[in-house]
Amino acid sequence: MSAGADLAAGCIASLDPLITMTKREPHLPMGLAPSRPDLFADKPGLHLVGLTWTCESDWLTREIAADFARAAATLPRATIVVVANTQMESFYLSRAGIPNLFANELIFTDERLFTVVPRQPQDLARFDAIYVARLEPEKRHELAAAIPSLVLTHGRPPPGGEARVRRTLPKARFANFEGTGGTYRYLEDAELVSLMNRSAVGLCLSAIEGSMRVSMEYRLAGTPVVSTRSVGGRDRYFMGPHIRVVDDDADAVAAAVRELKAQRFDRQAVREYVGQLVAFDRQSFLLNLNKLIEWHLGVRDRFRTFAPFMSHPVAWRSAAQILAPLAAASAG
């Protein structure tokens, strides 16, 4: 989902002490808290800021440094910490003097939503691959051109985006337009999971972006992944027999899809494999976050489970919904 003026991704994870986790966006350059000094300027707290796009470059890091300085001046009693998706991002941020915590945002993907589902009779129509990606040039749909059976799902396309991709992939099925008389329809999570479960492989074809959340959603739904080499963080969990990382070449992508499809992996095994990797990083996140909280706010072991962070830091909601717990506490 693209962020609107009133949308934000994140949550208030704790009111006492005050801890928020929201994401950097063009309209929220250092997350939600600095945009509401009326609510946060007089309160000590810890504000974690996730990245929607990689900062593995000097010029992007300089932008974040400028935004961080303005936010710190706006919230003088708070501690602001950027959450890096990769250790290289952490390196760039640290070199620029920006406090940061390494925690790839893919650990916040909700495995209760993305699951392996039993096959039903209607699942007989199956696909070699699925690509869940915006119809934007940077998603490089052309690299899927040699895959015989491909299904695409995406957000509302930009002007000309659908026509451009249809020219590139004339045989692909556009799930968001099926059965609608040509009108775009948003797919709910359950529909998306069904398509993932009916696909042999999930595709990740961009060269640079953020962590690409669908790269984790595929595997939680038991779908192996073919990816190109990338910057942004999705490759942290690209290990094990269910992954192929290939050159930027349509034939190489198609060959990897054929190879993984032929292996007929047990979908539950795919899910469990990546789940173990995520569990390790979730525990690391809690350990380091609790140390930050104790250091800055004097509270020990504030979070004993990952539950307050499940899904919320990457789920888009209205700012009012995110801020509701704080508003209710103030009213009380």
Architecture overview:
By secondary structure, the chain is α/β, with parallel strands linked by helices. The chain has two domains: 7-108 and 276-331, no CATH class; 127-265, Glycogen Phosphorylase B (Rossmann fold), CATH 3.40.50. The chain is 34% helix and 19% strand. It has helices at residues 37-40, 58-74, 87-95, 161-168, 189-197, 214-220, 250-263, 267-297, 319-331; strands at residues 7-15, 18-24, 45-51, 78-84, 100-102, 127-132, 150-153, 173-174, 199-204, 225-228, 243-246, 316-318. The strands form two sheets. It has a six-stranded mixed β-sheet, sandwiched between helices. A six-stranded parallel β-sheet has the order 8-7-6-9-10-11, sandwiched between helices. β2 (18-24), α1 (37-40) and β3 (45-51) form a beta-alpha-beta unit. The radius of gyration is 21 Å and the shape is globular. The two termini are 34 Å apart. 41% of the residues are buried.
Which helices and strands, and how do they pair?
Layout: E1 7-15, E2 18-24, H1 37-40, E3 45-51, H2 58-74, E4 78-84, H3 87-95, E5 100-102, E6 127-132, E7 150-153, H4 161-168, E8 173-174, H5 189-197, E9 199-204, H6 214-220, E10 225-228, E11 243-246, H7 250-263, H8 267-297, E12 316-318, H9 319-331
Parallel strand pairs: 2-3, 3-4, 4-5, 6-7, 6-9, 7-8, 9-10, 10-11
Antiparallel strand pairs: 1-2, 1-12
